[in-house]
Amino acid sequence: MSNHSPTSHSFFSQRLRLHYVEWGDPQAPTMVFVHGVRDHCRTWDDVLAQFVDDYHIVVPDLRGHGDSEWVQGSGYDYLDYLYDLYQLIVQNDFGPVVLVGHSLGGAITSFFAGTYPELVSKLVVIEGIGLWQRHSNEVSLSEKLRNWVETTQSLADRQPKRYDSLEAAYQRMQQANPQLSREQAYHLTLHGSIRHEDGRFTWKYDNYTYNFSIMGVRTDEVIELWESIQCPTLLLNAQNGLDNRTGQDGTLLHFAHAQLHNIADAGHWTHHDQPQAVVDLIQAFLAV
Question: How far apart are the C-alpha atoms of 209 and 102, rounded to whole Å?
Fold first, then answer.
């Protein structure tokens, strides 16, 4: 099989069967790409295609996403995602790896690099979640808990939207993300949706990923993890991206070995909007 074709694999973490795809030569240095919330592993295909000749590429579906199993009986938390990433890298003896993360994946990879610096050779964070909870420190714990309970309860009634055809799902993807080319939108729909027994389609991600637990990591602990990162770090943010990204709002000073680039004419899904700019910046970073 060609090194340019992905192969699917599974591993276990906290009793969940989790999925990842693998590209390239297993003997080459490993790059691990970690997607964001309600996304999936094939979101990276346009970018990773330009690294597959030089690297062994590993791309997981986070728990509750893509072809990985959903959590039963609890929510989704940074720390569980971090544990899954540890299991993926250590079970397979992939480390030290180049870690690339987008959005939620950027937060997970930066926390991981601060916790296990010996397993990460270089870190790339694209529109990573920053200190968006800094003001939640002013809210009492009881209020946080009540909000969490209320949000969790509301998800029990939330039914996944069903589409009568793949074409209908594709049209929804294109409508929600008008900056995508037709090819990008179709690719993301094809790999991000699943057909059910009644012939209709839904998105693969678990609706419970909408309830992101705020009980896990305090702002000062986030900063402590960032300051524990020892590897060279590349922070990529979009000119038209979201607020509170890593490297913005005075947070760059917490990254000891980092460079920050803002990419023009791009939104939060920077690697879809400007894939070549993202690739060029990562390649230059890895070449040093």
Answer: 16
| Residues 114 and 224: beta-carbon distance below 8 Å | yes
For 207-227, the pLDDT digits (tens) are: 888 876 656 678 889 999 999
Q: Of 113, 107, 125, 135, whose CA–CA distance to 219 is shortest?
A: 135
Q: How confident is the model at residue 253 (pLDDT cuts 50, 70, 90)?
A: very high
Would you say the C-alpha torsion 167, 278, 114, 122 has a positive or negative sign?
Answer: positive
146-159 pLDDT, tens digit per residue, is: 888 888 888 888 88
CA–CA–CA angle 203, 209, 213 (5° rounding): 175
Distance CA(159)–CA(145), nearest Å, equals 24
| Cis status of the peptide bond prior to 29, with omega within 30 of 0 | no
Give the Cβ contact number of residue 91 at 10 Å.
11
Chain-wide mean pLDDT for the chain? 92
Tell me: the pLDDT tens digits for 267-282? 999 999 999 999 999 9
The three-state (H, E, C) secondary structure of the chain, written as one string: CCCCCCEEEEEEECCEEEEEEEECCCCCCEEEEECCCCCCHHHHHHHHCCCCCCCEEEEECCCCCCCCCCCCCCCECHHHHHHHHHHHHHHCCCCCEEEEEECHHHHHHHHHHHHCHHHEEEEEEECCECCCCHHHHHCCHHHHHHHHHHHHHHHCCCCCCCECCHHHHHHHHHHHCCCCCHHHHHHHHHHHEEECCCCCEEECCCHHHHCECCCCCCHHHHHHHHHCCCCCEEEEEECCCCCCECCCCCHHHHCCCEEEEEECCCCCCHHHHCHHHHHHHHHHHHHC
Instruction: Say how many CA atoms lie within 13 Å of 120 toward its Cβ.
Output: 28
As a whole number of angstroms, the distance between CA 105 and CA 167 comes to: 28
